[in-house]
Amino acid sequence: MVVKKIKKVINEVAFPAPQEPIEFYQETLLNRNDLIWLDVGKNQRVPAIYIKGGRSLKSKFTVLYSHGNGEDLGVDSRFLDEMQKRIGADLFAYDYVGYSLNRFEPGDKNVPSVSGCKKSIMAAWKYLTTTANVPPKDIIIYGRSIGSGPSVYLAGKVGTKKNPEERCAGVILQAPLESAFRAVLGPKTATCCVCFDFFRNHSIVHKLRCKVGIMHGTEDEVVPISNGEALHKKLKHPHEPHWVEGHGHNDIPAEYIFEYAKNFVNMLREERRGPDTNLSKEEMRKKRLAAMQNYKQQQSEENVIVDIE
C-alpha cells in the first residue's frame, strides 16, 4: 500500500500534463486530417498525428516523436508541423495516457504514469509497423526530456535486434535523462532510491546496435547536461552529439533542433548509399555551425530598431 502511494505521488510530480480545455484541442487536434487514435488497452485510447511529406522524399524515414512531460500534441502541433517540413522525413507523434484528448475519454484509468507512457509508445510502434507498414529499419525514435524514457524503453526492444531489417534506424535524444531520479538527485544519491527510480536509460543505451545522437543544452537546470554526457559515453554506436552552448532545457532554438535531426536523417540516408558518399563529422559540424550562424543573424535582424525621427 505504501509503495503504491509513493508511486502515485511520483507520477503526479513527474507528469504535469497541460490542462487545456476541450476547445483548445478542437482547434489544434480535432480539426486535423492526420489525427489517429491508438488503442492502448481495453476501452482506452490515445491520440496521434501522422504528418507525411509526400512522395518527393527519397529513402523515406519516419520519426517517432515522444514529447516532454509538460507538453502534449495540442501544444506542440505547430512545432511538429514545421519539424516535419525541415528534417526531410515523415513524422509520427503520439500522446501519453492522461494527456490532451485522452483526458476527456470516459473511465478512471486515464491518468499519466510510467506504464501509460510505455503502453502509448508501444501502440505507436505497432501502428507504424503493422497498420502503416513502415519497416522498422526506416523508423527513427526521437525522445525529448521525459520522452527519452519511453523512447529508450522502445529502443531497448527494437534497437538491439541483430537483424538490421528488424532493428530501428536510429535514436535521437534531446535533453535526455540518465534516469528520473538521477536527473534530479544525481547518480550517487539516486542509488539509494533505485527501487522507485524509473526510465533508467543508463542501463539500456549501451545495448543499442543502432546509431544514437544526443543534443543537450549546456545550461540545462532541469535535466543537467551531465545526464546527456553520461549516456553518450555509454553508446556503442554514437552519432556526433550537439552540446548547445548557452541554452537550457526549454530554450534551444527550433532551428538547432531541426538542423540536428536533419543531419541525423541525412547521415542514415548517406550510409545506405555507401561509405564513399558519407558526410564526414567535420562536414556535419560545419553544416550545423552554418545553421546556427544563420539563426543568430535572423535574430539579430529581427531585433534591429530603426529610429525614424
TrEMBL record:
<dbReference type="InterPro" id="IPR029058">
    <property type="entry name" value="AB_hydrolase_fold"/>
</dbReference>
<protein>
    <recommendedName>
        <fullName>Serine aminopeptidase S33 domain-containing protein</fullName>
    </recommendedName>
</protein>
